[in-house]
Amino acid sequence: MSRYDLALIGFGGVNRALAELVFQRGDSLAEELGFALRVVAITDLRAGSLVDTDGIDLAPLLAAEPGELDFAGLPGGSTDPRNEWVIRHVPSDVVVEATFTNPADGEPALSHVRWALESGKHVCTTNKGPVALAGQALKALAAEHGVSFEFEGSVLSGTPVLRTAQSLFGGLEITGVEGIMNGTSNYVLGRIEEGVDLPAAIAEAQELGYAEADPTADIEGHDVQLKVMILANEVLGADLRREDIFCEGISTITPDEVRDAASKGLRWKLVGSATRNEDGSVDARVAPLALPSHHPLAGISGPVNAVSFHTDLLGTVTVSGPGAGRIETAYALLSDIIAIHQRHTSATRRVLQETHLV
Ligand SMILES: NC(=O)C1=CN([C@@H]2O[C@H](COP(=O)(O)OP(=O)(O)OC[C@H]3O[C@@H](n4cnc5c(N)ncnc54)[C@H](O)[C@@H]3O)[C@@H](O)[C@H]2O)C=CC1
Ligand SMILES: N[C@@H](CC=O)C(=O)O
């Protein structure tokens, strides 16, 4: 049976949830999926780094409170995250990047992804920075080194929006996308409607694992701006930069406006959209809208998100599901590893068939 050795870069909510999946369900996943998973390295800004090429014992790490983790005292551990050394030199098959998203320049995650691909390692990431700001270049780098760059979780967490559009919409022309793409702001708007104030609602979203390390990105729309960029570039074939996308968040809407709208059957939502024009150019924007109750996105509540694809042959197709959450996003990483396995297994089979060995 194949086995993939994982190097986890960043050990916050999402990568820790992936480690839990590997620890708790590794055997049943192996039976179902036909490959095993093993964690051989973990790096984190706060905890340091830990390496065991025979496989890290995850039990004590998962038993510790996240804030208490300190790898320094463990065999193979260090206070220094040693990201570049771990990514380039510790033998692993897949580098799983889940550090903070930096909407400005994507760093240091962008470098983490580059180092891994240059070293001939597959990458899966939930980090929106590298995908939005350098997705095409990173895909080219992956192709050059014969490895995969997967990022399903960068848009709508574990809900398979990108893979649905890329694998199931063959023969359709997608003319635009529109959706609610941030779990935190959607959750916060719902809680404000219920009478909770903004700081308390944000604190709840942080506790639930939905919010960015700096929740300003959720509230001011920058997180959705990156997701719209990813969708526009991946699905509409655009080449947008952040400054091409108008961005307004939800901080300008007062609680009274939210509750007043609700009393009139309207619901404030943070909506991101990208539309292809007749000349092939793409317009994209992020802004709060008060949607009437009959609008398909009006009923999307809490951390649930939705993306509608406008197509020529099917009209509008909407994919809805979790937009945030630690376990939900860890599932996105698992789905990326499954995609890597399937792609490379079929590539190997093709080579064997061509050389008449099967
Ligand atoms: N939590 C969610 O629902 C979702 C998160 N994402 C993205 O996934 C990534 C991870 O999210 P979470 O785990 O929720 O965030 P988190 O804030 O819980 O964890 C990030 C971890 O990365 C570590 N880190 C930061 N910079 C580092 C560096 N230079 N080297 C090593 N470690 C570093 C931090 O110490 C922290 O433990 C973020 O980029 C986020 O935008 C994407 C979809 C959903
Ligand atoms: N902070 C983000 C997490 C997923 O990208 C959100 O709330 O949607």
Automatic annotation (TrEMBL):
It catalyses: L-homoserine + NADP(+) = L-aspartate 4-semialdehyde + NADPH + H(+); L-homoserine + NAD(+) = L-aspartate 4-semialdehyde + NADH + H(+). NCBIfam families: PRK06270.1, PRK06349.1. Catalyzes the conversion of L-aspartate-beta-semialdehyde (L-Asa) to L-homoserine (L-Hse), the third step in the biosynthesis of threonine and methionine from aspartate. One of its GO terms (biological process) is threonine biosynthetic process. L-homoserine binds at residue 212. InterPro entries: HDH_cat (IPR001342), HDH_CS (IPR019811), HDH_short (IPR022697), NAD(P)-bd_dom_sf (IPR036291). The active site is at 227 (proton donor). Belongs to the homoserine dehydrogenase family. Its EC number is 1.1.1.3. Keywords: Amino-acid biosynthesis, Methionine biosynthesis, NADP, Oxidoreductase, Sodium, Threonine biosynthesis. The keyword Transmembrane helix does not apply. Its cofactor is a metal cation. This is Homoserine dehydrogenase. The keyword Protein biosynthesis does not apply. Coiled coil: none annotated.
